[in-house]
Fold this protein.
Amino acid sequence: DAGITQSPRHKVTETGTPVTLRCHQTENHRYMYWYRQDPGHGLRLIHYSYGVKDTDKGEVSDGYSVSRSKTEDFLLTLESATSSQTSVYFCAISGTGTLEAFFGQGTRLTVV
Amino acid sequence: GESVGLHLPTLSVQEGDNSIINCAYSNSASDYFIWYKQESGKGPQFIIDIRSNMDKRQGQRVTVLLNKTVKHLSLQIAATQPGDSAVYFCAERVQGAQNLVFGQGTRLTINP
């Protein structure tokens, strides 16, 4: 899986609680992405990063924040989880000069 | 493992037959296209890509065709095997953007 580790792999949390998902890469790639995958919607971009402390919003960024303090780590935070954020979350990376993205194994998040 | 989707377009083919998966993309400014394969419980895996200055590209048992006139992309898999059963996604990159935009996916089932 191209040196990408997502943690946790599964999480159940209550509505209103904060949640942080972590993506760790060992490829030293510049770009990192967070996608969510839902039935009927495919993969949708939440946020992405183009360098340390450089991030930008994606298609479905409301309710999410991200941080990247090191090249290898990209954190996705749900400040106050809602049931609509129940989903499978995928982290992806890509390098400078390449366009294909490599994906992690995913995190299944359930908000009850 | 993570479920991919409950209401995807589906395609069933006999083992050994060829399969063709189609994708319509939306943006005439897209200049790069990619096909991913996603097996149950795993993240998407790169299969093959093509740039907009090409009409066809071949890999091992796979061929991607691009018709820019009608904004259509197809993935041909030759001599299908049971391991080809998965959900297949096309993705496009709009010129100048870094991220990929994904289609909803097609579930391919290989019958013995």
Q: What stands out?
A: Chain A has a mean pLDDT of 94. The radius of gyration of chain A is 13 Å.
